[in-house]
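[[Local backbone shapes]]
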Amino acid sequence: MELLLRRYQTIRFLSIALFVCIAYGPIAGAVAGSWNEPFMSLLQLVSGRRLELLAHSLVFSLAITVFTTLTGVLAALAILRYQARRLSTLVWVLMATVALPATVPAMGWSYFFALLSSITGTPVMGSWIGAGVAQGMALLPFATGVALLALSGADMLLLDAARALVSPTRLLFFVAIPLARPTLMSGAALVFLLSLLDYTIPSIFGVNTYALEIFVVFSATHRISDALLLSLPLLGAAMVLVFALSGLTRQLSQSPSQDFPRVGSLPWAFRTLLFMGALLCSGALLVPLTALLPALSNPAYLVRTVLASENEAGYTLLTSTVAAVLALLLSVGPALHLLQGGRFVRWVWALCLLPFLVPPALMGVGLIALWAPVRFLDMYGSSWMTVAAELARFTPVSIIVLSSSLLRTDPALFDATIVTGTSLRRMVSQVMLPMLAPGLVGAAGIAFVLSLGDIGANLLVTPAGSATLSMKTYNYLHYGGSQAAAGLCLMLLCLAAAGVAAPAWIGKRMVKNHD
């Protein structure tokens, strides 16, 4: 691999330079655009209302993090206790649920809470508790996948040795979980940031968060400086916690082990906790499917909804596909660079991840500041603004997936092709593409699905007269069009499934042809 990196160093650095320009361009645009604007006063920035909103948002995100991490660990232990087969596939499926459009779980839980309110007479919409439950359950499958990855990646020799010395309960609590703590903390940090930065589900449930304040203030004042100043607390949290995510990115390069030791009889209270964790995780996966019931109950209305949304569906499919392909191409250089390791590898990981953790509204504002003055390219006001927002936000995730796949390959095979004098075309088509097919498929698929569900940045940059399916679903959920929103959620799930299945089929064909 070292020979490959040295031989094609120019191409690699060109790809890295393009990634930096596209991912950090909006941030630079926001800083430059606010330079000549009047800044809001300190009293406006730290007003009692905004400080209270920030405090509520921090507590809200922290509570979701604690709930999902603890429940995810219990669900993961329940899965490992019964020696689930195909653990690697299960881990990736659970973790991939974080990429699903947020409007789908929001629709499912709003439908569930409406049914619950009709039975109990207690309204849930508009409360922090209802929004917290919906947000926490939306992120619970991801937290369970992280816990499975962490626990199955623990040192099995230590676990086997400890099993002969301590009770089953102490083995799990005082050996297995401490060994998995670094990855668990990395996953908890990511859940916290995702909850803090995304306002989609809370706003659908009628709850205002600090992340939404950035969008609201910019929409009212059209001052880039206001959005930048309001984003500083969230940017600070992202920059502090981004280094904690390096443990998760390293763990992704390892395959989950199927050899987690069997434990003996556990106390009934602990067995009950494991059962409750598994039950909650199952509910988190199944309840969003109830969002499809209103659509499936009236096929004629579903057909009308689909036909009425064909423009949004076409726009979403086009922009998401273009963003996924470009994100895959941009991720190759940084992913190869991460293979070199070195003293500053944590800083490189952090720089790759940081654009994904920038508030989505700030990304949209930065793109407006960057491209609105550039009239001769006709970028501003075109569909390329939507593609640019999705590229800036989700290319970092493609880099993580692709680099994790690269770390699992045998570097000697690449060096052998260099030594034998194989041409670049043959090396790419006959060696690299077949070997890296899983990583390439994963990188493109995750970028496509994430692009389908983006709302925070697209609400600002999507040109007038156009809309994505997620934006239209978001508006319907705000105005009570539950049956139409259910049809749109079904369309989003079908597009997400197609976006994963199509690259997977292409990857299998590539491997089969190589064999």
In short: The radius of gyration is 23 Å. The mean pLDDT is 81.
